[in-house]
TrEMBL record:
Membrane topology classification: Multi-pass membrane protein
GO cellular component, one term: membrane
Name of the protein in question: LHPL2 protein
Alphabetized Pfam families for the sequence: L_HMGIC_fpl (PF10242)
Length: 228
């Protein structure tokens, strides 16, 4: 018989597991890892409302994508266009970024799998006498290690030609040059920290769902158990 067990600690762990998986996925897909040096506005960049020139814009560069401003041939305005600069894996600008993409992708896949499984832990807490919380916590720890490896390798690729075109000639491995870090990089770092928090907190979720109070509720014949 399936017993739906919901506790504060197990629910918090589930929510954090889902949030961190989405955060890492969004960061990985974003082009806002590096914010390039300001590009001056040309004489064609005119604000139709004020008649003045628009402010200089900052192109952004991701692991495999980029955002830049493109001009319209028939219209006196420019729009920001975002999309992948690499049509396939081999066209990613740096070998270090290729390794980063591999490690981050592996970590994110594990986190997404754990996030999916975490939803079902309210009904199924163990498989083959193994606690799902403990197994998921171990997987989150492994995912965190993959994420760390990816984030360590990423700055090593700042010396590639693609990064130099955005960040200037002084850009090199672990040196930003004229660029600055975008929100995607900080999100990936924050998500990695939360991943390890989830890995540790999974033990608390397991303790909460197997406590004496839960066992007493089960013995009383309740199928839905909600505890603070």
């Amino acid at each position: 018989m399936c017993h739906v067990i919901v506790t504060c600690r197990s629910m918090l762990w589930t929510l954090l597991s889902i949030v961190v998986a989405f955060a890492e996925l969004i960061a990985f897909m974003s082009a806002d890892w590096l914010i390039g040096k300001a590009k001056p506005s040309s004489s064609e960049d005119v604000d139709n409302r004020t008649g003045g020139s628009q402010e200089p814009y900052h192109p952004t560069l991701g692991i495999y994508g980029r955002c830049t401003r493109v001009s319209h041939m028939q219209l006196s305005r420019r729009d920001t266009l975002c999309g992948p600069y690499a049509e396939n894996f081999n066209e990613i600008a740096s070998g270090f970024w290729q390794a980063t993409a591999i490690f981050l992708a592996m970590g994110i896949m594990i986190l997404c799998a754990v996030a999916l499984v975490s939803v079902f832990t309210m009904c199924v807490q163990s498989i083959m006498k193994k606690s799902i919380f403990n197994v998921c916590g171990l997987l989150q720890g492994i995912a965190g290690l993959f994420l760390i490896l990816g984030l360590i390798l990423y700055p090593a690729g700042w010396g590639c030609q693609k990064a130099i075109s955005y960040c200037g000639p002084y850009a090199s491995a672990y040196k930003l040059g004229d660029c600055s870090l975008g929100w995607a990089f900080y999100t990936a770092i924050g998500g990695t920290v939360v991943t390890f928090i989830c890995a540790v907190f999974s033990a608390q979720a397991e303790i909460a769902t197997s406590s004496d109070k839960v066992q007493e509720e089960i013995e009383e014949g309740k199928n839905l158990i909600c505890l603070l």
